[in-house]
Specification:
Layout: E1 6-12, E2 14-15, E3 27-28, H1 35-49, E4 58-65, H2 73-86, E5 89-99, H3 106-114, E6 119-125, H4 129-134, H5 141-153, E7 159-165, H6 172-184, E8 189-194, H7 202-205, H8 213-229, E9 233-236, E10 239-241, H9 248-254, E11 258-262, E12 267-272, E13 275-281, H10 285-290, E14 296-301, H11 307-315, E15 322-323, H12 324-331, H13 339-347, E16 351-354, E17 357-360, H14 362-366, H15 368-373
Parallel strand pairs: 1-4, 1-11, 2-3, 4-5, 5-6, 6-7, 7-8
Antiparallel strand pairs: 8-10, 9-10, 12-13, 13-14, 15-17, 16-17
């Protein structure tokens, strides 16, 4: 099996306040952040995972959370200097940092650039203060706009803005206003996704009043038209980009590439010795800091019978889908093994297969979870 490209995910698990919709591994900051000791833990953890690298360069890095912008620029400078002594980075390596508009100063953005971070993902969620309050966000609309402008001023030309739609009592007009204000700022990438109520969140126990299905459909259709009219192309279920500005790191996920995982609760996927392994780091920050040696808490090889589902679950999120040759490269399986499934879904007009390229139809995108379920063993 040919080794796929290799990326690196780093998880910073702390935030100032847990948002009521958030089901990520994030923990409210109770005291001063242990920057130095956490970086030491990340690097010690990496030492035990270097066997996964197999002479591959890192082509993208994503620092997620939590709120990674709570860490200082000096902390990231220290981290990346150390990482570069252990890992090889491609010359055009994309390094993305998630940042919340309420946790930055312009000087911090300058320091992030100097540390080698070359892409920002700003968790705006909405440009309407009433919605930000409902979502438990700690920033205002003005702070969001200022954060974008400040990042651009210090040289960040690759910026993603995260926006949610289907917010409590949101109208189509309100949703379109959020999109317009994001694109008016000149950003090159937009993550626009629907608010969903997840277990183990405050919203799950105290659900807000969300728009009805007809309104959600109107928002989705009108929003996609507006984004297309403004020159960004949809390339994944919830991702839109100017030409050439797609997230390389996320594309690696969706194309079933490999990625190392460091940090509390981080998930990784690696190919080795003809097998594909998923693994997860210990979840609680204190446990991650105190544990000696490897912080891997769970590790499991993906059974060959499960690989078609695992691959389809990622690759069919992309508008252009996948080439049958990529399926073979990433899984080591013969494409003929999934052709009966593809033929059945094509007959149902949920997939199209042309010139050995498989992708969802508009109907298939609407019922993506059902489409992917057909690939289960």
């Amino acid at each position: 099996m040919t080794l796929p490209p290799l990326a690196l995910y780093l998880h910073i698990p702390w935030c100032i306040r847990k948002c009521p919709y958030c089901d990520f591994n994030s923990h409210e900051q109770k005291q001063a952040l242990p920057e130095a000791s956490y970086i030491d833990a990340l690097l010690e953890d990496l030492n035990h995972d270097l066997e996964f690298v197999q002479d591959r360069p890192i082509h993208s890095v994503f620092i997620g959370g939590g709120t990674p912008s709570l860490f200082s620029a000096q902390a990231y400078d220290t981290l990346f200097r150390a990482l570069r002594t252990k890992l090889s980075f491609s010359d055009d390596c994309e390094i993305t940092l998630e940042a919340n508009p309420g946790t930055f100063e312009q000087e911090k953005f300058e320091g992030y650039r100097a540390a080698g971070i070359n892409r920002l993902s700003l968790g705006v969620q909405s440009f309407q203060d009433v919605q930000l309050e409902k979502l438990g966000r700690i920033h205002s609309s003005n702070e969001a706009q200022h954060a974008i402008a400040s990042a651009q001023a210090v040289g960040f030309d690759r910026i993603n803005v995260d926006l949610m739609h289907g917010l409590p009592e949101q109208t189509t007009r309100d949703a379109l206003d959020d999109i317009s204000r994001a694109l008016d700022s000149g950003v090159s990438h937009l993550s626009w996704y629907q608010l969903t109520i997840e277990p183990n969140t405050h919203f799950y126990n105290a659900p807000p009043t969300l728009p009805v299905e007809d309104t959600l459909a109107d928002i989705q259709q009108a929003g996609q038209r507006l984004i297309a009219d403004r020159g960004l192309q949809q390339y994944e279920v919830s991702a839109y980009a100017a030409p050439g500005e797609e997230s390389r790191h996320n594309l690696n996920y969706w194309q079933f590439g490999d990625y190392l995982a460091l940090g509390a609760g981080a998930h990784g996927k690696v190919t080795r010795n003809g097998s594909i392994t998923r693994y997860q780091k210990t979840r609680l920050p204190d446990h991650y800091l105190q544990r000696a040696g490897s912080r891997t808490a769970q590790s499991q090889d993906i059974a060959a019978a499960d690989l078609p589902f695992e691959f389809a679950m990622n690759a069919l999120r992309l508008n252009h889908g996948f080439a049958l040759s990529l399926f073979s490269l990433r899984t080591g399986l013969d494409p003929t093994s999934i052709m009966p499934i593809i033929d059945r879904l094509c007959a149902l007009e949920l997939l199209e297969c042309r010139n050995e390229q498989v992708h969802c139809t508009a109907l298939g995108q609407r019922y993506l979870n059902d489409v992917v379920a057909h690939f289960l063993p």
